[in-house]
Write a sequence for this structure.
C-alpha cells in the first residue's frame, strides 16, 4: 500500500508540474494577460483526452472488433480475469499488424476495450497471453488509460503552443515579456522537452503498477516476465513506423512499439524491459514460485 500511495502521489505531482509548465507559458506571453486562455486550453485538452481515450488507439492501429468464435482463447482469458476482478467484460479487438503488442483503452471499466495485435497472438503461448491481458486489464481498473491520455493531451498541447510561439512570436517586445527575448526562447524550446519528460515519467510509473497488479490478478508473475522477454525481441524485429498517430498512443502499449535506439530509448514512455522482468521475478520469488 505504501508503494501504491507513493506512485499515486508521484502521478498527481507530475500532473501539477504539467499544469505549471502550461500556465508558465501563459504567464510570460503578453505579460500574462493570456494566462486564463492557456488555463482554458488546459481544461479543453483534459476533456478531449478523457472522452476520446477509447477511440484514438483503436483507430491508429486499424483494429477491428472480434467475436468469441474468432478468438476463443482471448475471450476465455479476459472473461475469467474480469470475473476474478469483479469488473465488466471489455470489448475485444485485434489489430492486423504483425508487430507484437497489446493495449487497453477507455476512460473507465464500463467503456473499455482491450486489443491484441496478430503478431502477439502468434508469438505468445496461452499462459503468457494471460499474463499480458492481466496487465492490460489492470491499466483499465487503475484508470491508467485516462491518466495517460490526459498526460499525452497536455504534452501535445504544450508542444503545439511552443511551436506556435516560436514561429509567430509570443509576447511582442521585451517589455511584454518579463523573461526577455532569450528567456522566451528558452521557454519555447524547453517547455516541450519538459512536457515530454513528465509524460514519460507518468507512463513509466503506471507501467510498473500494471505489471505488479496484473501479476497479482493472474497469480503468475513469471508468465508476464516470459511474455515481456519475447515482446522485447519481437518489437525490435518488427518496429512500428514512428508516425504521429502511433506516437500519440504508443504509451498505451505494453511494449515500446518503436525501435528504441539511441535518444529514442532515453525518452521512451516505457521502463527498461530488464527492470520490469527483474521486478516480476523478485515478486515470484517472494510468492515462493520456482523458476
Amino acid at each position: 500500500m505504501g508503494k501504491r500511495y507513493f506512485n499515486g502521489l508521484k502521478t498527481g505531482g507530475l500532473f501539477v508540474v504539467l499544469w505549471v509548465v502550461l500556465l508558465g507559458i501563459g504567464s510570460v506571453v503578453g505579460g500574462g494577460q493570456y494566462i486564463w486562455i492557456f488555463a482554458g486550453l488546459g481544461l479543453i485538452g483534459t476533456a478531449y483526452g478523457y472522452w476520446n481515450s477509447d477511440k484514438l488507439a483503436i483507430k491508429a492501429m486499424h483494429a477491428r472488433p472480434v467475436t468469441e468464435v474468432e478468438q476463443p482463447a482471448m475471450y476465455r482469458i479476459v472473461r475469467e480475469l474480469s470475473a476474478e476482478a469483479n469488473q465488466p467484460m471489455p470489448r475485444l479487438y485485434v489489430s492486423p499488424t504483425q508487430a507484437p503488442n497489446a493495449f487497453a483503452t477507455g476512460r473507465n471499466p464500463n467503456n473499455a476495450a482491450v486489443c491484441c495485435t496478430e503478431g502477439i497472438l502468434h508469438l505468445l503461448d496461452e499462459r503468457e497471453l494471460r499474463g499480458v491481458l492481466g496487465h492490460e486489464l489492470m491499466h483499465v481498473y487503475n484508470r491508467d488509460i485516462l491518466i495517460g491520455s490526459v498526460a499525452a493531451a497536455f504534452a501535445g498541447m504544450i508542444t503545439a503552443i511552443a511551436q506556435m510561439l516560436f514561429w509567430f512570436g509570443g509576447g511582442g517586445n521585451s517589455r511584454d515579456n518579463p523573461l526577455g527575448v532569450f528567456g522566451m526562447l528558452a521557454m519555447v524550446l524547453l517547455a516541450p522537452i519538459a512536457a515530454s519528460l513528465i509524460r514519460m515519467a507518468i507512463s513509466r510509473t503506471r507501467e510498473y503498477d500494471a505489471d505488479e497488479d496484473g501479476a497479482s490478478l493472474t497469480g503468475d508473475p513469471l508468465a508476464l516476465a516470459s511474455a515481456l522477454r519475447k515482446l522485447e525481441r519481437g518489437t525490435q524485429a518488427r518496429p512500428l513506423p514512428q508516425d504521429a498517430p502511433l506516437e500519440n498512443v504508443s504509451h498505451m502499449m505494453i511494449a515500446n512499439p518503436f525501435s528504441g535506439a539511441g535518444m529514442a530509448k532515453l525518452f521512451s514512455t516505457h521502463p527498461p524491459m530488464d527492470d520490469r522482468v527483474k521486478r516480476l521475478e523478485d515478486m515470484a520469488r517472494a510468492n515462493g514460485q520456482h523458476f
Notes: Residues 15 and 151 are 7 Å apart (CA to CA). The chain has twelve helices and four strands. The radius of gyration is 20 Å. The longest helix spans residues 180-218.
